[in-house]
Amino acid sequence: MGDPSPTSSSTVGLRKAQAKPLTGGILGVVIGICIAVVLQQQGVWPLDQLSLFLLPAVIGLLGVLLTTIGRESAPTALGIMLVLLLAMGVWGGLGFTNFGEHGQLNGGCTAGATTPLDTTTVVDTSRGDPFLIDPHAGLDWNGTSPTPFRNYTWEIWVDIGGFPITVADGEESNDEGKTSNSGQVANVSAQATSRGIPIDQIRGVLMVGGYASTCDGFGFVKLVSSGFLETLIAKAAAGLALVLLAILLLVALTGRTRPLDMEAETVFPDDMPGED
User: Fold this and answer.
1) Best CA proximity match to 230, nearest among 38, 71, 93
2) How many CB atoms within 10 Å of residue 108?
3) I need a surface site. Which of 13, 34, 46, 155 has the fewest CB within 10 A?
4) Radius of gyration of the chain, Cα coordinates, nearest whole angstrom
5) Separation of alpha carbons 52 and 91, rounded Å
6) pLDDT per residue of the chain (276 residues) written in tens, 0 to 9
């Protein structure tokens, strides 16, 4: 009989799975945005630079760490994500310069309002002490200008993340040459909707500004919510945040290793255990 033929066997080892910083960072950023929306809708803080950029950047960084530590490095993806998060964080951090900001009104005009919940002028409002508005109730308003504004344009905007988003604009003739005006709104939501401002499903603190002729300014208002997660926006943001958080934890805590085929080993029958 011939010599015993050698046989081959292979063993399977484990190695670290590839890091997923882009996945972790993107999930973290979206979770942060959802949290910012919930905080805004509950009247905790407006969607300014701090909440809409700095907060998501911080949570995005946590997502990167969760999906990178203990895994094989992915330098290109990690670098891209860190640059994006750094840019978001820097822009968001600039919001600290406006942390204690109060309302402003320039050009010699005045503006004030009264609701069943509050009475104020624009310059008395702030992020921490906004003008309280019941969206389902009425509002009385008044304003003055230093000179009659004739055939002038006006605009109303809402600040989102440090960027003014126009929600309404128009033109007025003021043929009578008035320098003061006032009015009553029976229902804030209905009046806003009729002017093309969709606040029926919006609550929380908002930075609202605008201009009329040579006057411009801004103030802070709070559309008071009647309960936790009252609006569809708040419910959707909270639900999405929970789902994405579960996905992030699943990605971070599972699949951290993967099979690694080891080099084949030659085994002769004479070397096998149990044989003389």
Assistant:
1) 38
2) 11
3) 13
4) 30
5) 10
6) 555 555 554 555 556 778 899 999 999 999 999 999 999 999 888 999 999 999 999 999 999 999 998 888 889 999 999 999 999 999 999 999 888 889 999 999 999 999 999 999 999 999 889 999 998 899 999 999 999 999 999 998 999 988 999 888 899 998 899 999 888 989 988 888 877 777 777 899 999 999 999 999 999 999 998 888 888 899 999 999 999 999 999 998 886 665 554 444 444 455 545 544
- Structure tokens that stand for 219 in this block: 């103030």
